[in-house]
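Working notes for the structural subgroup meeting. M.R. asked for a predicted model of this chain before we commit to crystallization trials. I am recording the input and output together here so anyone reviewing the notebook later can reproduce the run.

Input as submitted:
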Amino acid sequence: MPGFDAIIGQPRPIRILTRLLARGILPHALLFTGMEGVGKKTTAAAVIMACNCLGSSEAEDDGRGRMTPGAGGCGTCAACRKIAAGSHPDLRRLAPAGGMIKIEPIRELCAFLNMKPFEARMRAVVITDAQALNPAAGNALLKMLEEPPPQTVMILTTAQAADVLPTIVSRCRQIHFAPLVRRDVAAILMRDHEQDPAT
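Returned structure, recorded in C-alpha cell form:
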C-alpha cells in the first residue's frame, strides 16, 4: 500500500498534510511528534512520495513547484519505489548513532542540500529522534532551517516537541500523531505481519 493509504489511525495529520500539498504550501520543515510506532516515519515517506511521484495523475507539478489537489504517491513509479526502499539519491535519513546525532552528519547534510536535486522535484531529509541532536548539531541544523535550500523538505520526528531545541521547533510546522487505538494496532499487525492480533 503506497503513500497516505498506508497510514492507519492518523486522520488529522493526513488531512493537514494532504491539504498543504494540494494547496502547494507544504512548509520546508515539518516536525512530527508522537510516541514511537504511530506512523511518523511512514507518513514522512508518504509526504516525500507525494512531492516526487512520477506516476500518479493526481501528483502533477503545476509548473511553479506546487502540487495539484489530491496529490499522493502512486507507490509504483521509479521515484516512489526508491523512496520506499530508502535508495532515492535525493533522500537522506538521519538517526542517532550511539544515542546522539553529532555535528558531522549534519555537516554532510548541509553539503548534500547545497547541491541541486539529482532527479527529484524535491530533495528530502528525514531526521528521526530529533531530540538526540547534540548542541553543535542542533545549531548547524538551525542555520539550514533559517535559510532553507530551495526544492527541499525537511521532516523531523520526536516523541515530544519540548525535548527538541526550541529554536528548531519554532521553525517547523508541528503535526502531532495521536496514540493508536486497539483496532488500529490490530489492523496494522494484520496488514504488516498477517498475524491475528488475538495471538
